[in-house]
Amino acid sequence: MSLLTVGTVAFDSIETPYGKADRIVGGAATYISWAASYFVNDIKLCSVIGDDFPEAELNALRERGVSLDGLQVKAGEKSFFWSGRYHSNMNSRDTLVTDLNVLADFDPVLPESYKDAEYVMLGNLTPEVQMKVIQQMTKRPKLIVLDTMNFWMDVALDSLKAVIKEIDVLTINDEEARQLSGEYSLVKAARVIRAMGPKYLVIKKGEHGALLFHGENVFFAPALPLEEVFDPTGAGDTFAGGFIGYLAKSGDLSFENMKRAVMYGSVLASCTVEKFGIEKIKELDQAEITARAKRFSELIRVDF
Amino acid sequence: MSLLTVGTVAFDSIETPYGKADRIVGGAATYISWAASYFVNDIKLCSVIGDDFPEAELNALRERGVSLDGLQVKAGEKSFFWSGRYHSNMNSRDTLVTDLNVLADFDPVLPESYKDAEYVMLGNLTPEVQMKVIQQMTKRPKLIVLDTMNFWMDVALDSLKAVIKEIDVLTINDEEARQLSGEYSLVKAARVIRAMGPKYLVIKKGEHGALLFHGENVFFAPALPLEEVFDPTGAGDTFAGGFIGYLAKSGDLSFENMKRAVMYGSVLASCTVEKFGIEKIKELDQAEITARAKRFSELIRVDF
């Protein structure tokens, strides 16, 4: 099944208690594509970069079955750059630099071959860009998943609500769910948010796992307790890529299968945070994914 | 199987965003006994109160199979009193008043009939009192579980470490595990803490569930997403009571059964927080516990 993703393709400079990584490749669409590529090999990436982006990284994506026909390359301009420093507990971070560069006036234009994709992953980006992607689809995709963050709730709430109305699954973290709904209880927050449009809501809680809400059903996915979280950057994007990649592969949108997709998203995210940037998500193989999936399964196995 | 518990029997005044409750019955041993009473009816309570404690509350415990032979009643003195105010997110609270009263010079004296109990639950109290209880046992219990809090790590770390050395299961929350071990990663923290003595470690994470560590095994128990957390007071004590009560009933100390015990502790704790104080834990019945256990089971059920 074909999977279209929009999101940033960017450079990140990251400081964590374990070290520094300078101008490494990152961006939501990069993580999403890598994660999804372990499930499907018909991925269409829509984004924008400058002419400073390493060709080898683009070729590595192409080799994973990712089409870059929708990746705009702006001559003489620079790619999006983000720099941040994580605090010692890894749960919070300071943004040091945000250089929008090519992203400032990004107008997503879908090639014809992208417009009938059955699965659409709208990575974290301005809600206006996410909406423009939906509007270019020639038929309603089987599934539209949207990831966003508190920043857009602060500066573009109306546009965000407009695009949320058009989607099937929203993925946000617990604080964002509380902010978007105005409810502290996540059960109540889920009800308010689902009334905004999406049938499914995934609340990501980092080291505490994730919750999947649908109707009156709830599923609690664990997170793998790790020796070290080396770099949390991209964990949410990796989760999203694994989640929609698994759904696109299986073609099954039942609640039972959504639960498995949440587990696979969590499995891949637990890999990403073990190394800097996309280093770990680039080097996985099926055996490692299967072994880690087994650890997740063991983690919650109880005859109860 | 007989279960001995030591802990406070007290009055609490509680303020939450949902209201105030003035001088209601509380205390670790009260919650532990009520929770455990749904599994076993041979419970021996060791604590101290003043002559201000309502006889009806004591009789209610007796009717649940709780022996109060080891409950000292100090004529002319007052019971332990704690008063606190929860913040709007319910995750943090301010202590307003702590009147030790009878607790100030509590010397736990076990009646002869208590000294061969097979299961011992050392509720949160000074480590010295917890140690004195262990020292009076005439034979090594099958299982000793200890609950404690950061306060004792701050003011009585050596005594705490001495008693931790003698026990089988330690239950603390995630911040306390980090404080006690000096490790941020809970996997590393668990290793450090288990090297201090206990074979099993339960890390309680409130709304995020609980982790059970044993050797290289980990179990991730969910928490039930609730409409409202009305009053978190006693949730940890209720968890401990349900946990050891289930183990005492089943008599099975395997890791597989410990997992079930963590689930039952979580089930009962999820009840306690739905009403003020011990109101909810007093009125449960088997049908309600079974129905809620089913919800916990559904919450993590995935064919993965």
Helix content of chain A: 25-40%
Q: Structural class per helix/strand content of chain A? A: alpha/beta
CATH architecture designation of chain A: 3-Layer(aba) Sandwich
Mean pLDDT of chain A: 96
Q: Major sheet of chain A: order of its strands?
A: 5-4-1-8-9-10-11-12-13
Under CATH at level 1, the class of chain A stands as Alpha Beta
State the low-pLDDT regions of chain A, or none. Answer: none
Structural description of this entry:
Two copies of one chain form a homodimer. By secondary structure, chain A is of the alpha/beta class. Chain A has one domain: UDP-N-acetylmuramoyl-L-alanine:D-glutamate ligase (3-Layer(aba) Sandwich), CATH 3.40.1190.20. Chain A is 37% helix and 26% strand. Chain A has helices at 28-36, 55-63, 127-136, 150-155, 157-164, 174-181, 186-194, 235-250, 255-272, 279-282, 286-299; strands at 3-6, 10-16, 19-26, 43-50, 66-74, 80-86, 93-99, 119-122, 143-147, 169-173, 200-204, 210-214, 217-221. The first copy, chain A, has a nine-stranded mixed beta sheet with strand order 5-4-1-8-9-10-11-12-13, sandwiched between helices. In chain A, strand 6 (80-86) and strand 7 form a beta hairpin. Chain A is globular and about 60 Å long. Chains A and B meet through helix 7, strand 13, helix 9 and helix 11 of A and helix 7, strand 13, helix 9 and helix 11 of B.
